[in-house]
From TrEMBL:
GO terms for cellular component: ATP-binding cassette (ABC) transporter complex. InterPro entries: PhnD (IPR005770). The lineage of its organism: Bacteria, Pseudomonadati, Pseudomonadota, Alphaproteobacteria, Hyphomicrobiales. It comes from Devosia sediminis. Belongs to the phosphate/phosphite/phosphonate binding protein family. It comes from the Bacteria. GO terms for biological process: transmembrane transport. Residues 1-22 form the signal peptide. Keywords: Signal. Pfam families: Phosphonate-bd (PF12974). This is Phosphate/phosphite/phosphonate ABC transporter substrate-binding protein. The gene is phnD.
Amino acid sequence: MSAIRKLLLASVALSMSTAAFAQDGLVLRIGLDGGENEADQLRRSECVAEPLKAATGATEVQFFPSPDYNGIIQGLLGGTIDIAIMGASSYAAIELQSPDAVDPVLVAQQADGSTGYHTIMVARSDSGITDLASTEGKKLGFADPDSTSGYLIPNVALPADLGKSIEEFYAETGFGGGHENLVLGVLDGTWDVGTTFGSGQGEFSEGYTSGNLRIMVDKGMLDMDDLVEVWQSPIIPNGPLMVSNSLAPEVKQQVTDMFMALPETDFECFDAFTAGGYTKFVEADKALYQTIIDARRSVIGS
């Protein structure tokens, strides 16, 4: 990590801490990762503020968007973020560095009862790329180094299907700056092929039932006719709702109970907060993510 990056993270952490202690009473801080543009993330998430206040007695709920996943990971590690939904690899990064920092308490469930999704590798439909074999020698874009579907799982699962390492198979690899930007980069030719995520349920032509492709379709940012799917990973556990252990135990339970009840008390808010395609939250724990923790340890180290 560069010195500038370290200084930036320290500055963000200090500003978050100062904001929290400037208030009278409990302030809850929700981190929003960089998988989607900041304005849309805030719009989808703000509805949980009032229910959280009512459930916990908090005087304020603050939202902290980050341009990348690592900003929220560092906030959760440092106790300057209290709540976040992130991919399993991001949780694994926290678990590997500080096992007592957060607990994964809930996970969103699809209509069929599953709690998983897939890496979806896509290319432009007019690129001549039709399958995994035809991506050889091309430029591969990953979403973010802390993304489960956009980086970790492809690094674990792709080589077996490629028959050689990613470095040997592709002419160039890099990062797209989050899932939304990665897909836009594929569309504008920055990347020949890129990794994003989707439920794998429903129709590819609609962006599946949930995931980044469906979010972009619903926002009018993407016409699925412009893309072709060239690879789909094995199933990945949906990312957890994490709650910081810096909160008092009774507050953690109140936060957990509020989110568990949200699909019944305000399904529209639940649907927005989870980006659509899910029916409810179910309980989660470390055991659900052990395979991802082990994979991150082997591929990234922390």
